Fold this sequence. Notes:
- This protein has 539 residues and is of the alpha/beta class.
- The strands form five sheets. Strands 1, 2, 3, 4, 5, 6, 7, 8, 9 and 26 form a ten-stranded mixed beta sheet that branches. Strands 12, 15, 16, 17, 18, 19, 20, 23, 24 and 25 form a ten-stranded mixed beta sheet that branches. A two-stranded antiparallel sheet has the order 10-11.
Amino acid sequence: MTAVRFSVLTTVYDTDPMHLAECLASVESQTFAGEFEHIVVDDASSRVDTCEWLAVLPTAPRRVVIRRSENGGVVAASNDALAAASGEFVVLLDHDDVLAPEALERLAEFFDAHPASDAVYSDHDLLRWDGRFSSPVYNPDFSLERLRNHNYITHLVAARRSVVADIGGFTPGTDGAQDHDLLLRLAERCGTLDHIPEILLHWRQSATSFSGDPTTNDAAFSRQVDVVSTHLERCGIAADVTKASNPGVVRIERHVVGSPTVSVIIPTRGSRGRIWGVERIFIHAAVASLIAAADERVHLEIVVVLDSGTDPVVERGLRTIAGDALRIVEYAHPFNFSDKINAGVGAASGEYVLLLNDDTQLIAPGSVGEMVGLAQSDDIGMVGAKLLFEDGTLQHGGHLYHGTISHSFLGWQGDHPGPHRILAVERECAGVTAAAAMMRRDVFPRIGGMNTALPANYNDVDLSLTVRSAGYRIVWTPYAAWYHFEQKSFDHPIAQSEIDEIDRRWGDFVRTDPYSNPNLAPGRTDWLELPMRSGATPL
Length: 539
């Protein structure tokens, strides 16, 4: 007898019979030629038409129907389904959702090609009330920090049954957030979850799911907070977890260990400019905004790399603003941002270094502590911040290397949560700008510092790729924010030598972004789908 490859698990409770029929039919019509089974557990439905429909449900060769004698909730029903499964992998399918016809076939192809993989997820779209597909969600490759902030994966998920059993199946008391909990525990066990960038499931919009009206799921949202808090405790991360302002998103405030010193590295030549109608010396405003918003969790050392010949008023003003926290590093060479940063870090004494442009102004008072909270994790090599232009539009939401080197969502409204709340959560990025980036000081020399062959442009791209190639994660946070008056302070055309250097060193790495998706249009920063991939397609 051929072994069962996939067990599709579906729990049922008072489901609209028409929706359940479509769900079951989508499993029966799979193109996969191997062995699979569909485990359906009715959690003691009480809705009359659901019970009547289940009572006359015809048998099917691949379907196993289990009827619970009392309602126990989705976790209890899911554990019953898991216990009844015999497949090598379990596939999670909600009672009103629909599998794409090729879903199991694509999963089989993936696991055949990646036999060491224990878990994988796909992209999905929404199944509208009128039966049409719309609003595709093209996920990034695995992003642990984003998963902690919200369940961006949702559907479709397949995992090795033995692994799911080993980690205890579905956790009692997590009803409504049970999938998020399972994904976090799989991540703890497996280290990463793999990703198939194809739509393999159609998620039905309804008033009882986050795809419909997230505000109706307050109980599930509260359990999500508990799930994330418990996960962080298991990982040894001390943090306060609360509901964020966006539905389905939690706010994680990590505790800063000890009272570390952060060395703020600011190269400057004392540039001036007019912002909001007022003339300023940029470096003065940048440092003053940091000092005024002192974060009691950290101590600041202000390391200013100052060009020789700079107007003396610049240094005098800095000493007045920063006092004993100031350290001046004189720079007597032709402009080279990378070399200036290296010189500043070399003179720093803090446990952390915050690379900061002089044409910035702090917005969020707790930004430095927020970044330290992330940077103190051993596997995080660099932390980036949200940067806004003078008019409040977004300058930096993380780097994007998808057919171009740019900033994600460049020019969007600064308070916009982004598609699928991507700008409202902490998340891994391919890179972040050095206009406001934090690293542990010991990481900087370990990866060789900044590349002096890139004096003006792409040095932060090179730094980011070097950090990632050393095995570290790079995380962007919306909870650390500065204004960046870049367009007002410096004109820096890109030299051909810089283009050649970044291409020589990184090639396809600056054209393939794991935190984007191949279904998105290259050369854009706004997550627009490729043509013919945005729905709405009739069922």
